[in-house]
Amino acid sequence: MRVDVFTIFPDIVDGFASFGLLGKAIERGVLDVRIHDLRSEAVDPHRSVDDSPYGGGAGMVLMPEPLFASVEAANPPRPLFLLGPAGRPLDHDVAVELAGLDGFSLLCGRYEGVDQRVREHLVDGELSIGDYVLAGGEVAAMVVLEAVGRLVPGVMGNDDSGAEESFATGLLEYPQYTRPASFRGWDVPEVLRSGDHGRIAEWRHAQALVQTVRARPDLVAARGGLTDGEQALLERLGLLP
Ligand code: SAH
């Protein structure tokens, strides 16, 4: 999968993408992340990319010329998304959708945002990472890159490890434990050390249900509540909320 990112701070995104899961995926050639400096297409000697807003007001606005020129020079994979608070909210379903593409591109705004003509005539859509305002689209682009990247086949070491994670099943994940078996008197649940895979799977499913009912009842409601079988399971394990 190829992902192109357009930004005035290429080093931020480049540094981020070189670590961890993404870094390894890029090294192995599973992901092809290309970062473009919006300033490289600026036409004036100062390499300006921003100017003050027509109509007055605070701050600066990213100008259309360098943005159009950068995108046209790179001919990046489409769809090209502008990051911004007005965009479609990023969630697991959006991430799955993007992970199914051969590629897509991200345009990071800065200052007060981008000239409206970029929104209307250059990008194909907008993505938001939440109802708050960031200083720039770079962090948002990295969130999209990581959330989508880890769903691309071959990016995670063990291809199964995404299947049970939070949201993939419509539930939050069950609790995880590692060594030591006893830490400051807090013990790892006996069932996880039993070696009984049937019981472990059942316990994990029950715990995922309990975690989700407690922390995100909206997710449980969205999947139509608990099934009769799930109710019975929680009752049998003494976990009924
Ligand atoms: N004036 C704009 C905010 C500009 S913030 C407004 O009121 O809507 C500067 C840049 O940060 C934006 O162009 C966008 O690229 C990025 N950004 C800010 N909040 C974001 C969010 N919630 N999701 C994604 N990108 C965001």
What is shown here, in short?
The chain has helices at residues 10-17, 20-27, 64-74, 92-99, 116-121, 138-149, 197-215, 217-222, 228-236, and strands spanning 2-7, 32-37, 50-51, 61-62, 80-89, 103-107, 125-128, 182-183, 186-187. The protein is of the alpha/beta class. The protein has two domains: 2-159, Alpha/beta knot, CATH 3.40.1280.10; 166-236, tRNA(m1g37)methyltransferase, domain 2 (Trp Operon Repressor, Chain A, Orthogonal Bundle), CATH 1.10.1270.
What would the keywords be for this entry?
binds S-adenosyl-L-homocysteine, alpha/beta, elongated, 5-stranded parallel β-sheet, Alpha/beta knot, 36% helix, Trp Operon Repressor, Chain A, 9 strands
Task: Please provide a written account of the structure.
This protein is of the alpha/beta class and 241 residues long. The protein has 2 domains: 2-159, 3-Layer(aba) Sandwich (Alpha/beta knot); 166-236, Trp Operon Repressor, Chain A. Helices cover 36% and strands 16% of the residues. The chain contains 9 helices and 9 strands. It has helices at 10-17, 20-27, 64-74, 92-99, 116-121, 138-149, 197-215, 217-222, 228-236, and strands at residues 2-7, 32-37, 50-51, 61-62, 80-89, 103-107, 125-128, 182-183, 186-187. The protein has a 5-stranded parallel β-sheet with strand order 2-1-6-5-7, with helices on both faces. A two-stranded antiparallel sheet has the order 3-4. Strand 5, helix 4 (92-99) and strand 6 form a beta-alpha-beta unit. Helix 1 packs parallel to helix 6 and helix 4 crosses helix 6 (138-149). The longest helix has 19 residues, at 197-215. The radius of gyration is 23 Å and the shape is elongated. S-adenosyl-L-homocysteine (SAH) is lined by residues 83-85, 108-110, 112-114, 128-130, 132-134, 136-137, 140.
